[in-house]
Amino acid sequence: MPKAKLDHAFVFAAQCEPGKKKTDWYDTTVTGFVLECRCSGGRTYYLRYEDAAGRQKQHKIGRYDDITFSAAQKAAQRLRSEVVLGGDPGAKKALARSIPLYRELAEMHLADAKLHQRSYTTTEMYVRRHILPKWGRTRLTEVDTRAVAQWLSDKRAEGLAPATVEKIRVIFGRSFELGSRWGVPGSDKNPTRGVPRKPLNNARERFLSAEEAGRLREAVAASKNKQLKHIVGLLLLTGARVRELLDAKWEHVDVERRIWLIPTSKTGKSRHVPLSTDALEVVDALPRFKDCPWLVPNPDTLKPFVSVKHGWQGAIKAARLRGLRIHDLRHSAASFMVNSGVDLFAVGKVLGHASYQSTQRYSHLANDTLLAAVEAGAAKQKVA
Known about the structure:
CATH architecture of the largest domain: Orthogonal Bundle
Order of helices and strands: EHEEEEHHHHHHHHHEEEHHHHHH
Structural class: alpha+beta
Oligomer: single chain
Strand content: 5-15%
Largest sheet: 5 strands, mixed
Strand order of the largest sheet: 1-2-3-4-5
CATH class of the largest domain: Mainly Alpha
């Protein structure tokens, strides 16, 4: 273990001793400060020390070609002071290396989403297309709120819709929420929290009139997709979400009690949807397929439709209802109920809303009912 007073001149001329693979020159000034000289000609600065448990450790300061002697000496003095005060520079470095990259957390997030999330394909697309290209190779502790805010701002500048940018933010934040729950190092702080968000106004209100609903029924009856008329009919009569209906099974429909059980809805809870006389007539007209449990399956596969988009597009074109979304049938079902005098609480229960605020969006539709109420009040005053 040769010793020497390490300085600019010494390290410049220092070499590996003949016949050895490497020689460690220990500084006589800073305890543990070492210059390692290899037979290949490479030289590296280290600090060697004992941790609190008495184990020998070393912390790499830098290569001779990458750092000046003065900087290496100052680093050695700082690290030595840390050791004297009970610190462990090597442990900090090991901890930093143990922090996973975001792409590793993303893999865990997507694996969980595939098991528990109905919209897995959407989540996977956002992660793959928008999040991984930016953050995939970044360690979790290096993702900070300011950088995330700038990134989302850049996404808006690229022309992405505000709702799309918000979806990206939510999915990215969800990764850190799951990581924190699972104890993944570096995910305890969610970098999406604190990012300023502009209020969104994405509520797209499209409600069919009775005449438009009639045209739509005629169009779907003529569709090449023979199940489309049943699907549209039940959506208009129940206000269910399209995926809930496409995944419905015969065992969940109780004709005697006039109830349709939806085991798992968007809110994560089951709910019962009452079936009107008209809805029961649609159910009664549904074709039955041997050994097929689904209520409205694809006749070709006897499995739930992945999508009815093709038939839907043809139907709304024939009905002169361009731009109508199949989800608008849910809004329309709500509007028909509200304008028939049904109170918002009952409408919310039928639709399976998690909160009363979700149903409040339909409050303005009750204008006809409210107008009738004030007219009745005015008439009563005249009689008096």
